[in-house]
Amino acid sequence: MPSEEYRRLWATPGWLPEEIGVIINNGQFFCYEGEELRYQLQRGYHDMSVYSLTGVVVNIETGQPSRGNHLVAVANGKSSKIMGWGDGYLKLTHPTVAHSAPVAPNESQWYLLNDFHIKPVTTEEALTFNTSWKMPSVITYQRKEANNKLDATWKEKLDTSLLYVDLRPNVPDKTYRTLDSEAEKPNSDTIIAIDTEFVAISKAEVMIESETNETRIVRPVVHALARASVLRGSGHDEGLAFIDDYIHIREPVIDYVTAYSGIVPEDLDPARTTHNLVPLKIAYKKMWILLNLGCKFLGHGLKQDFRVINIHVPQDQIIDTSDLFFSAARKRKLSLQFLAWCLLKEEIQLETHDSIEDAKTALKLYRKYQEFLDAGILEAMLQDIFNKGSAHNFKPPTKQSRTETPPVEGGSGPTTPGRRPGALFMGSSPSWTPGNSSRVR
């Protein structure tokens, strides 16, 4: 446990400086801050290295032994794009540490990173500590002369061989075909369609307040990635999967969520599976390679997929069909199943979900969106879609079963209702089908 003297010093306002200067002279170490730092820089007598504070990991003491402590981070950052406010937190599309931005921002802006939430805070709030509940755990400084100097040459030497290797070539009835190392080289112009399935590996922990008798979730359900499917988004084989990985999960699975995921125990059992079962790090590495190659990730409600994969994709690499067919004036996102019925005259998710089917459907919807946009009728078609949705409660009219994708705890991505037979196309524009150039008709 930290001593009281340690706690008292850290709780002193301004104790942690945003800039420090270091001089090493004849084996002696000297550190300066504030006015002393400016004075030494003006004198210029010694070779001084100046460091700027980039971030702090803070230990939050909950005061409840059963809950333990909690780590959060504060970082000196910036974001060129801001989505808006939600749940009391600012949603940033691509937050960047200020010292690692290509161009230095005009001023510092500190952000609190707490799990999946990012919230702007003042410098005072970020760097003020409290002896009773908030103390620093890790402090990071970066040499100032290295700020805003990025070296991305490592991407030119990126090992992409994993994308072209079939780790289980003898799997029967394959649902995928790996990329051709000569003819199919993903790059920043490549569109890939993606969808995932997940299972639960931990139940939610619930606490009942003794005084109010109210139920509060202490720890949400923990989900694990169980299947990741990635499809070609263009070319002769558009719509054909080149990744369909089932994940070997080492933790005990408490709920396979089969009604939503389509995953059953034997799918993830090495002794019984007929699928391409791989360790999580292999599936993640493939996604990481595609991300750093600059590929555009296309899907429906991708926020939830990225949360399950636990990967951040910059906004300019995301094509989300739930956003393409969204109108702020109507304030409603449409499900994949409803859009498939309404625009494609297709029935999906009759019994459960299939990640290849869902990714392919999102790809077809994207092509439909492009057709509407090119023809100059997008707004008119959106109006027709919402009129049709209002008439049918945004569900296919003959739907018999419903299997909505349960949102990951803390997420607010759109859900995907289950399919029903007997789909009818929206009457106002029956002639719109995927164009001749599309391979996913």
Automatic annotation (TrEMBL):
<dbReference type="Pfam" id="PF00929">
    <property type="entry name" value="RNase_T"/>
</dbReference>
<feature type="region of interest" description="Disordered">
    <location>
        <begin position="391"/>
        <end position="441"/>
    </location>
</feature>
<feature type="domain" description="Exonuclease">
    <location>
        <begin position="190"/>
        <end position="375"/>
    </location>
</feature>
<dbReference type="InterPro" id="IPR038765">
    <property type="entry name" value="Papain-like_cys_pep_sf"/>
</dbReference>
<keyword id="KW-0853">WD repeat</keyword>
<protein>
    <submittedName>
        <fullName>PAB-dependent poly(A)-specific ribonuclease subunit PAN2</fullName>
    </submittedName>
</protein>
<dbReference type="InterPro" id="IPR050785">
    <property type="entry name" value="PAN2-PAN3_catalytic_subunit"/>
</dbReference>
<dbReference type="InterPro" id="IPR012337">
    <property type="entry name" value="RNaseH-like_sf"/>
</dbReference>
<feature type="compositionally biased region" description="Polar residues">
    <location>
        <begin position="428"/>
        <end position="441"/>
    </location>
</feature>
<dbReference type="InterPro" id="IPR036397">
    <property type="entry name" value="RNaseH_sf"/>
</dbReference>
<dbReference type="InterPro" id="IPR013520">
    <property type="entry name" value="Ribonucl_H"/>
</dbReference>
<dbReference type="Pfam" id="PF13423">
    <property type="entry name" value="UCH_1"/>
</dbReference>
<dbReference type="InterPro" id="IPR028881">
    <property type="entry name" value="PAN2_UCH_dom"/>
</dbReference>
